[in-house]
Amino acid sequence: MATETLTLGKALNAGLRRALEHDQKVVIMGEDVGKLGGVFRITDGLQKDFGDQRVIDTPLAESGIIGTAVGLAIRGFRPVCEIQFDGFVYPAYDQIVSQVAKMHYRSRGKLNIPMVIRIPYGGGIGAVEHHSESPEAYFAHTAGLKVVSCGNPQDAYWMIQQAIASDDPIVFLEPKRRYWEKGQVELDAPLSEAYPLHAARVVRPGTDATLLAYGPMVRTCLDAATAAAEDGRELEVVDLRTLSPLDLTAVYESVRRTGRCVVVHEAPSNLGLGAEIAARITEECFYSLESPVLRVTGFDTPYPASRVEEEYLPDLDRVLDGVDRTFGW
Predict the structure, then answer these.
(1) Which residues of the chain, if any, have pLDDT below 70?
(2) Which of the 8 DSSP states describes residue 58?
(3) Can you give the pTM of this predicted structure?
(4) Distance CA 145, CA 173 (A)
(5) Do residues 114 and 73 make contact, with C-beta atoms less than 8 angstroms apart?
(6) CB 291 within 8 A of CB 323
(7) Cα(200)–Cα(238) distance, rounded to whole angstroms?
(8) Which of these, 239, 233, 229, 293, lies nearest to 261 by C-alpha position?
(9) CB-based burial, 159-173: b 16+ in 10 Å, e otherwise
(10) Helices and strands: H and E segment counts in the chain
């Protein structure tokens, strides 16, 4: 089976290209996605090869992008919308929550909205205000939406294709600071053989504590597990991959083995995904827990200026401190 070393960004580009080749109803739309190839070059070369009727440069109007995509989806197309930066999604929030999420329910199942909303999210690139946010909880809290986040090139390549092929509206979160990280990608397997889209995965086995993460924090947790191993502590890392619906089967199995759990995400702790996950683990694994489920997250403040963002983002030291605290009970 052919494999190639790709960055996460290039893997997304390859996945989008394959989706465009496979289905003539797939269209990509967003600000600067065509001639420029997107600000992160994720759609680089696609308009040149597929034309401006399928890779469409839109006006700077997020609500217009999503509203147009709803109409296209109802008419049988599979629009893939790019929101240029995470902080730009809020003008489209009304459309996403009021239309995208509810159309299938409102029509009693007669209408599907097979659309993907791609959002580069998270910090770590030194960007200015409104360019480094983690809005995942807004969408995961909204019934009718599915929310996923890739954490490595292999997942990026396959998950974007699976999301486009789905008949459900999917918010596809891309960890922008991981766009340039490389990994091996299998390019020619059938889509049906890819790891399921809405399934968590153990990415590093361990016995002493469980680290749960998604998107940009998966790499941070893997680095923390490597550092902990030098001190003789084996940490299991689980990549959640899907935020709505949550797949907690692998999580429960892991926590029952290790007895300890730390949930890590960049978003603020207050009402974040970590709170929901901690509650469910406590309900299901109470008698297996040796300590409370702890969270390592961003702080409950607006995202800070780029010069101090490293103080805001969870890093290896904060993750390891969370692990140490679980052993203090």
Answers:
(1) 1
(2) P
(3) 0.96
(4) 13
(5) yes
(6) no
(7) 7
(8) 293
(9) bbbbbbbbebbbbbb
(10) 12, 14
pLDDT for 240 equals: 98
Beta strands in the chain (DSSP E): 3-7, 26-30, 55-57, 78-82, 116-121, 146-149, 170-175, 182-186, 201-204, 209-213, 235-239, 242-244, 261-268, 294-298
> Containing H/E element for 305?
none
For tokens 């940490």, the residue is 235
**What pLDDT does residue 1 have?**
66
Q: pLDDT tens-digit profile of 44-96?
A: 999 999 999 999 999 999 999 999 999 999 999 999 999 999 999 999 999 99
Question: Using one digit for the tens of pLDDT, what is the confidence trace for 213-249?
Answer: 999 999 999 999 999 999 999 999 999 999 999 999 9
Tokens found for residue 189: 């397997």
Omega within 30 of 0 (cis) for the link into 91: no
Write the DSSP symbol of residue 92. Answer: G
Catalytically active residues are: 131
